[in-house]
Design brief:
About 45% of the residues lie in helices and about 20% in strands. The protein is an alpha+beta fold. It folds into 3 domains: about 160 residues, GAF domain (Beta-Lactamase); about 80 residues, Orthogonal Bundle (Helix Hairpins), CATH 1.10.287.130; about 140 residues, Histidine kinase-like ATPase, C-terminal domain (Heat Shock Protein 90). The strands form 3 sheets. It has a 5-stranded antiparallel β-sheet, sandwiched between helices. A 5-stranded mixed β-sheet has the order 7-9-10-12-11. About 0% of the residues have low confidence.
């Protein structure tokens, strides 16, 4: 290349480096390449990692007369394999050519290896239908273009490695947070159980029956809390890994809500609930898991909005059924709402003990049904949980 080629060299370098995404950069490179090098089709082939076998075409562009040509001719797969096998440039021109021949049957092929610091990574194939032949100067230009394609694939690999490292780091941070949180959560009920048990076993103190019963009741409650926490942790892990079985079957959604309400009112004597149903649909769902979601919402209403009336609405909105669970409690500050469904999240300063797993599990269960759950809240007016379940049911086997 000579001094007159400096602008196109700079244009290619800018196309490679100045786009945030390697695919966008590849499109930019292609635009520059087409303006400085004549071709009808171009295909990039990449080797399988650690092998000499080509994958499918990593990138292809038909810009000229080859847009309607057959695949084998149009994309030069045979030439690409020869480039890989010989580890060098391959030029193939038609054995004979006549001005009257169909140009698409006379491809002029130029295959070049793509190399990086790790060695051969693939091949680029240029196709000209009906010529002209590749001149030495054009081949030199194509070789430079091939180095830019190689640089892009190096960038792609580095981007993927950086992303993998960032994901690994986030996972490690999540694991560390999980260990710290679960250690604290387990220590609290264990501390109560250990403390009251040790107190009851003291030989230098005699406890009256009422005090002993009070201590034993605390131990029993904390043991239940500990068991619930462990169950929630295991269940949330199974939900995240998609190993918690779901048993989908036809379910009357209105009856499910009503039955769950009755059970919850038997447990929470002060719970006031009003049902407002405009539909009585049968859906495909796991009735046990869906009841678990509703029970959690009733439990939260009793815990965080004690004495406040609750209204449960059931309606159809376009192609899904909506459950709107509304309490008239104190509400939740808006800055806490985005975190409400995160694992172990608890609203700061909120009365009542909880593991911070209930709403996380609710979200996982609803999503396993192909639905969505969201929350709305206004301080001093109350909180509404909105569950949307698709009319067609969950997509099974996807």
């Amino acid at each position: 290349m000579t001094e007159e080629h400096i602008p196109e060299i700079l244009a290619l370098a800018e196309a490679v480096t100045q786009k945030p995404d390697w695919k966008q950069a590849l499109d930019s490179v292609m635009a520059v390449v087409r303006s400085v090098f004549l071709f009808d089709n171009l295909a990039l082939y990449i080797l399988e990692s650690g092998s000499s076998e080509l994958t499918e075409i990593a990138y292809a562009r038909a810009v000229g007369r080859g847009q309607s040509a057959g695949a084998d001719v149009a994309w030069g797969a045979e030439i690409a394999n020869r480039v890989i096998a010989q580890k060098e440039m391959v030029v193939q021109i038609p054995a004979d050519s006549s001005p009257n021949d169909d140009r698409l049957t006379k491809p002029f092929l130029l295959g070049l290896p793509l190399r990086t610091y790790e060695g051969l990574i693939g091949a680029v194939v240029f196709v000209r239908f009906g010529g002209p032949e590749y001149t030495p100067a054009q081949i030199q230009r194509a070789q430079y273009i091939a180095t830019q394609f190689s640089a892009l694939f190096v960038r792609k690999k580095l981007t993927e490695e950086i992303t993998a490292l960032q994901n690994a780091r986030r996972l490690l941070e999540m694991q560390e947070d999980f260990i710290a949180t679960i250690s604290h959560e387990l220590r609290t009920p264990l501390g109560f159980i250990k403390g009251y048990t040790t107190t009851l076993l003291r030989k230098d103190t005699k406890w009256d029956e009422e005090t002993r019963r009070e201590f034993l009741q605390i131990i029993d409650e904390e043991a239940d809390h500990l068991n619930e926490l462990i169950e929630n942790v295991l269940e949330s892990a199974r939900l995240q890994s998609n190993t918690l079985p779901m048993h989908f079957q036809p379910v009357r959604l209105d009856a499910l809500i009503r039955d769950t309400m009755i059970r919850s009112q038997a447990r929470y004597k002060d719970l006031q609930v009003r049902l407002d149903f405009s539909v009585a649909p049968t859906i495909t769902a796991d009735s046990v898991r869906l009841s678990q979601v509703l029970e959690n919402l009733f439990s939260n209403a009793n815990k965080y909005a004690p004495g406040a009336p609750v209204t449960v609405y059931l309606m159809q909105i376009k192609d899904f059924y909506r459950i709107r669970f509304v309490d008239a409690g104190p509400g939740i500050p808006s800055e806490y709402l985005p975190n409400l469904f995160q694992r172990f999240y608890r609203v700061p300063g909120q009365a009542g003990a909880g593991s911070g797993l209930g709403l996380f599990i609710c979200k996982q269960i609803i999503e396993a049904h192909g639905g969505k759950i969201a929350v709305e809240s206004t301080l001093g007016k109350g909180t509404a949980f909105v569950i949307d379940l698709p009319i067609t049911g969950p997509k099974l086997g996807g």
